[in-house]
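Quick start: what a row looks like.
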Amino acid sequence: MTALTAAAPGAPVVELDLAELRRDPYPAYARLRREAPLAWVPSVGRHLLTRYHDIVRAEKLPEVFSSREEGSLLLRVTGPNMLREDDPAHRRLRTAAEPPVRPRQVRDLWARGFEENAGRLLDELAPRGTADLIRDFAEPFVAANLALVLGLRNASAADIGAWSQAMMDGNSNYADDPDVWLRAANATGAVDAAVAEMAEIVRREPDGSVISSMVHAPEPLELAEIQNNIKVIIGGGVNEPRDLFGVGALALLRRPELLARVQQDPAAWRRVFEEAARWISPIGMYPRQLVQDFEIAGTTLPAGSRVALVIASGNRDESVFERAEEFDIDRPHQPHLAFGGGPHFCMGAWIARHEVTANAWPQLFGRLKGLRLDDDCRLDGWVFRGLTSLNVTWQAA
């Protein structure tokens, strides 16, 4: 299936500046939803699909909207992997990797380690009275958790965080920056070496980790398959929970009355998490390629058309979410799109929910008294979006 690199006949062409999208994509998304819900964007080299119901429709049709996109940036960075496969190949890879991240396993195998990782970081931070919560807490916390779940005992949290950022930069390198490709290649080489070492160890001594699960699956994976899929998991497994932590923490710090309410009702942490995921989706879009002619959003796309499902836009669709630009944990329930849908629903969603809502937020806000924002915070990115920093102060212990 050859990818088409031009607008479909009849599709509007909309010029979007990538630098402006990185600063704030939401005004452009609102305009596209109103005027061109399916539009060819030359700077991205694909059609952007921006309305909620159109995105949901596409997600439910993997036999039409294929994950096997020719020229995928993710494939260039990691090699063949489950995110860029369709069933049955996708199912085989996911079945091998998924058992350690199911809800019961999260509770029974990993919850205690998550709690200890958060406590250790807060022990180090508490006497300081000031920190960047993204750099000093959220990223090392989720990276340490990820190393535990994956079984990368030979990698530090700093290693995991650096590898993730380099690979995710590559996955969004639509500007084709050669320095970005070089950093991504260095990171993937380091991941390959670490995974190869641990795969050999768990082959002899299974430990319940994701690597161990893939090695000992009913249909065991080849080493290259394990390495490529661990690279994919490291990318999303750091940036999604880290950025959801940051967005939710920012919303709570800006509204002390909401923070006080949530602290009195621990069940509300989950509502903060889901609203943060909707409000500023950590993964803003993902690509698909059509395997047959198909009509959507008023345009017939020919086979081979490249499409971006812009879930960040769908999560701000005013026809679905009233006052969509506002952060509101009391809004009527409507499923958000932040973890995708269909067979590619995010495998790590339960990990992210638990580590953020049961550990990161409750322990942080319970431990650091008088926590307040130190200065303005900046969000960055459109393919992946999150806070670049979250500087705070508190009463030093």
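That is the whole record. The chain has one domain: 18-393. The two ends are 61 Å apart (CA to CA).
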